[in-house]
Fold this protein.
Amino acid sequence: MAFDKIIVVDDELIIRKTLEQQLRNRRYAVASASTIAECEAIMGKDQFDLIFLDVRLPDGDGTDLLERIGDDPDKPMVVMMTGYGSVESAVNCMRLGAFDYVIKPFSSDQIEVILKKAESFSQLVKVSRYLNTEGQSKSGIIGESAPMQDLKKIIRKVAATEATVLITGENGTGKELVANEIHRLSSLVNAPFIRVNCAAISENLIESEFFGHEKGSFTGATQRREGRFELANNGTILLDEISEISPQLQAKLLRVLQEKEFERVGGNKTIRVNVRVLATTNRDLMKEVDAGRFRQDLFYRLNVFPIHVPALRDRKDDIPLLASRFLEVFTRKHGHSVKGYSKSAEEALVAHDWPGNVRELQNTIERAVILCDNNAYITPANLGLIRMSRGGAEVLEAQSKPVAADAPMPSGDDTPGEGGVIPLEEVERRHILHALSCTSGNRTQAAELLSISIRTLRNKINQYRIEGIEIPEPAAK
Ligand SMILES: Nc1ncnc2c1ncn2[C@@H]1O[C@H](COP(=O)(O)OP(=O)(O)OP(=O)(O)O)[C@@H](O)[C@H]1O
Ligand SMILES: [Mg+2]
């Protein structure tokens, strides 16, 4: 049940009793009153979800009470009951904010229908209120570095307007987070915020996702469906990864931005909407325009207010703060107790280039929390980032760029070969180093971990000239 407390207000005893009984049978908690004054006294003591309210009451008109209930955010839904069923009085009740009305005499089936409608409406209101307030009170953006402070300032400024914003930045920099923040700080915060991931929806469905479709407009369109632009009406739409849409859809999107109108797929009725548009891309859209893949006119329509989210390697000051917040989050999530980062782990985090930006950092830390021994410090090996004293700093993750920008280059055998693939021998060398660091340099244990004999390990250490390399401390205070 989306609600449980109902009050019935009618001066006719027979109506009151019948309705009360029907509602009690459905397990609602029911109160009743025969006058407006009595009803207000009861409402003053408890909060009700629904009122069945007679229009003509001995001490006044039910519509007056309806008006007084007005805009209270926790107000009950009101169903007016009228014995003088005129269209005007019904219209008037609805205009004053009634949820519905019934004309006396009514059947129990009519009440059932109203209850069902009211239940689902109340559920919707609750869900939407929850979604709107969830995470709304706080910014999710972590970062105090100079570039992030500038970014936050720009976000505050643009949030106060209804300008179209184009958010650019590499993968995982936090573009979606920035979009959420713009919405959170805007005057449209309580209006719909609808997101479309343009890269995730297949080419043949995306137009219908954007603009909806009419029943029977294509195979599978068994019912009419509103598109995201309609759902976002009077609110905000986020077009994530906008560069991914086809030229045909680009033309239609341009029309929505310029004329604020479109037709559903298979429909001929023109629908008008008023929607604030936020878009993100990790591509250089200007280059896409030059290459003829993105319409220039659309680019200018979107680029009214550009915001660039800096790469993590350009704001390394933020890494310790992000790392410590993520550590909190993931130790809680996995129920692990972790002491913190070892000194060398902290250094490795800052030295790494983070080609996958904050998302990569987040994933790295989650994995490290899982790998880390209970009550221990997170080591560079847990992070998959190992620094060596000879040959300079380097990174062990095969999928990452191998060398931190500010670190001296290693001897050269480390660079990925053709197509960014790391040679097999290099992978083996790194794997051995990783095992050694997991065992704090203990070769017997490392050999066991690698399922090879100590002799083979020794040979490989010689072969890869690992001898003499400083193995990072697993935990340092
Ligand atoms: N400044 C930040 N503070 C806290 N969390 C962040 C920050 N930036 C990014 N994140 C987190 O990193 C992850 C990636 O962020 P987001 O999805 O916003 O990036 P994106 O730029 O949209 O990535 P993509 O280009 O891959 O779509 C999310 O889980 C997000 O919460
Ligand atoms: Mg994104």
In short: The first strand starts at residue 5 and ends at 9. The radius of gyration is 32 Å. Residues 140-143, 169, 171-177, 280, 282, 358-359, 362 surround adenosine-5'-triphosphate (ligand 1) (CB under 6 Å). Residues 155 and 178 are 7 Å apart (CA to CA).
